[in-house]
Each structure stands twice: as C-alpha cells, then as structure tokens.
Write a structure and sequence with these properties.
By secondary structure, the chain is an alpha+beta fold. It has 9 helices and 5 strands; from the N terminus they run H-H-E-E-E-E-H-E-H-H-H-H-H-H. About 0% of the residues have low confidence.
Length: about 325
Amino acid sequence: MLLIYDPDKQGIDPETLNQYPDADLSWCFDFLHAHARLKGPDEKELPGISESHSWSLESYGGFSLCMHFTLHRFYQLSEHTPTLQEHPLAAGLQCSRRQIHTHFAGTFYEDRTTIVIRMVTTRDNHGRAKDPATTEGFEVVGFTLDDGWGRGYRWENGDWSDKSLVCPDEARGVAVFQHLLWKRFIDWQESWQTLLHRLRTTMDIDDHHLASDSKILDSLMRDDDASTKSKQYFTTIKLMRTFRKHMAATPPDLADMREHWTRTFPGHTSAIPSRFSSDTQQALNKNWDHLEAHLGELHHNLEKLSREIEAEAREAWRDVSVR
C-alpha cells in the first residue's frame, strides 16, 4: 500500500476529498479486495450492481492514474506442484480461494494473479500541467500479486521490439501495464491448458498397457468397474462445462475495462483539455485492440480444447454405459 498510494492528495478536487477522505488509499483497497476475496468473477453481484472487482481505472481528477486487473484460473496439485515449503522466501497476505471438490477427479484449487500499476502523468484530467521536478523518482510503480510464489520475466524497460504494442512517451506507465497484461494472458492460457491436458490424460491408454496384462488396462476397460468409469467420464464432462464458465469471465472483464478507458480517452481531437494528447490516446487504443484480439485468440483455443475433451469423455461415457 505504501508503494501505490496517491502521493498527490493535495491535487485531488476538494469535492472528491469531502466525499472520499481516504481517496489516496481507497484504490489500494479495491485491488486488495479483488485479489483476496472469496467470490470469483463468474458469481453475480447483487441485482442492480454492475461494478467489477476484476479491474479498476481510477484517477480522482489528480495527476495519478491507477489501474489493476485480476486473472482467475484453477489448478490441481501434483508431485510437480511447488509448495511454500519448497519456496521458504515466499510471503504475503492470507487470501480466500474457491475449491472444486469431486470424488472421481480430485480437488481443484483457484489461483489468481493481479497486475497493479500507479503512474504520475504530466497533466491531470483537466489538462493542467504538472511541475516535472515533482514527478521525478516516482513516475511509475507497478507489480503483480501471485498466489504462493512469484513469476519473473526477463524484460527490460524500453524493449518493444516485438511490435505487438507501442509505448507513447507521455503514457509509458499505461503501455507497461498493457505489456504486463499481454504476458500474463499467456500465463493464464498455459495454466488452463496444463489443467485440461492433465484431465485428458486420465482417459488415455498408453500403447505399452495394451501389450501387457496390466491392472491399469483392466481398470480402463469396461468390466465390473464400468459404473466407476462412467462416473469418471461424466465428472470430466461436467468439469469442462464448469471450467469454460470460469475461462469465459476474463475476456468480458478486459472488454469492460477497455470500454471504460475509451469513454475517458476516445482518441479524437477535442476542445476539452485531457490527460493525454489525441495521438497518445489513439496509440493506446490500438494497444487495447491488440490486447483484446490476443486474449480472444487464447480464450478461443482454450474453449476449443475443452470442447474436444468433453466430446472424448462423452464418447467414452457412452461406451462404458452400453451393456
């Protein structure tokens, strides 16, 4: 919280401060609540409340711009899953996480990543310039919150050689945030993919099992164990549907955040002063376009894979159910 509180509280409109006296810290509570709370993105809030906890974009009218985005996924423990005992340096706050318990496929645990960034821009929402001397030293502060242990990246600030996104000079903090999202979306997809492939292997029969009188082969065939296998396949079918609901929550969250951004920074020339020039707004909006397309492709591939596994499980379920 000390890293990302708003140091320019004096620049916040008096009316805003009267209504939100903790405006310099309230955004901190927003992203901490998103990361630590038990409810997930697929659970509807109270009727009439459309506020999302998975993202935020706050400025309070001053020179600071604050953003966060939270990703949700599930994983299953295995002998290769790192534990806190293996990472004694990992530390953090206690978070509530959802679990999916099944009798025939084990337990699945939720995992979250929250990307957080606060930046100081050269102009406020009204286009008023800030003294550059007061900005030096804390232009951009950003980090990610992960469950358990952190994930590092070998990326040097200023390396935009892949051309996926651009970095306007007056909005470097926003571009860095978008770059982190791009990378984290890949992690999100790979984590889901690993889980889906793990479930798929439970239905596979290796060739070496066919060449031997193996107990494993007996357990995979339709015999006295047909009822158990039927329940396992049915469980896989239901899990694929459940996981698709969780996967489908992230693209709309990004679309909502981008829509809110575009309403604030539409990218066209206006007589009303703004925090960013029209050229910068247009460049950042193109970044959002590329991010949405990137996430859309990753989500499409995950949905396709989950439907393939569901179809395989359904076919196997019918095979063991026929008597």
